[in-house]
Specification:
Elements (H helix, E strand, L loop, with lengths): L2 H39 L4 E3 L6 E3 L3 E4 L2 E4 L6 E3 L6 E3 L3 E4 L2 E4 L6 E3 L8 E3 L3 E4 L2 E4 L6 E3 L8 E3 L3 E4 L2 E4 L6 E3 L8 E3 L3 E3 L4 E3 L6 E3 L6 E3 L3 E4 L4 E4 L2
Antiparallel strand pairs: 1-2, 3-4, 5-6, 7-8, 9-10, 11-12, 13-14, 15-16, 17-18, 19-20, 21-22, 23-24
């Protein structure tokens, strides 16, 4: 290779290197410009979305135009878990865009239930016209503490009649029955309940008392003859 050819090759190589460096410089400048543009595109009180393009407002802020504005939280309120809304503190109830104190009457207490007045009466009292009044419990009755239904019930051996507790009249050969329906009593085994008495069960031949003890069945191998109220051999 001549000296002239060597000089030409070296010049070409320098040109290639310079051109490559220029391309890299332009690319780096472009990347910096894009990064600056992206950073400038995120408004105040916003953060870039982690898995998609764009941005979103921080907790406690919401989108307003091209930026983020704080969510107005009234007095006696707090931001919800989502950070997009607010709720009134305990003891307060939302009234429009404010939180008003719940007026709890004497002998009442704040309720954690979302519906209703926001308060309940103490045991033995009931709400009436925004006040707590005593529950009239009749003799031989007791408070139930039930949220629904009758606030009182009768003691064992008594049944509710209107606003009083009447004694259950248990006939001879009967005993108290705690079921909520019926007369409040049942007959002993071997007796059948009538209107107000327990009458002995007369067993026909080839019969026995049933499981309840208040009726009878024919023995095995026999069948009931309704017309005769007796048991005859099964054919």
């Amino acid at each position: 290779m001549s000296a002239t050819q060597g000089a030409t090759t070296a010049s070409v190589r320098r040109i290639v290197v310079i051109a490559s460096l220029a391309v890299l410089a332009v690319s780096a400048a472009g990347s910096m410009t894009l990064a600056q543009t992206d950073a400038q595109a995120i408004p105040r009180d916003a953060i870039a979305r982690p898995y998609s393009p764009g941005w979103e407002c921080r907790h406690g802020y919401r989108t307003s135009g091209d930026g983020c504005a704080p969510i107005p939280v009234p007095a006696n309120a707090h931001l919800g878990v989502s950070g997009l809304s607010w709720s009134c503190d305990r003891g307060f109830r939302q009234t429009g865009d404010t939180c008003a104190a719940i007026a709890v009457p004497s002998n009442g207490f704040l309720s954690d239930r979302g519906l209703g007045t926001g308060w309940e009466c103490a045991r033995g009292l009931a709400a009436s016209d925004n006040v707590c009044v005593p529950i009239p419990v009749p003799a031989n009755g007791y408070l139930t503490n039930a949220r629904t239904g009758a606030p009182w019930a009768c003691e064992r051996g008594y049944r509710a009649t209107a606003d009083r507790c009447d004694p259950v009249a248990v006939p001879q050969y009967g005993y108290l029955d705690d079921t909520a329906y019926g007369p409040g009593w049942r007959c002993e085994r071997g007796f059948r309940a009538g209107a107000s008495a327990c009458t002995p069960i007369t067993l026909p031949g080839n019969a026995h008392l049933d499981h309840s003890g208040n009726g009878w069945l024919c023995d095995r191998g026999f069948r009931l003859v309704p017309e005769e109220t007796s048991c005859s051999p099964a054919s």
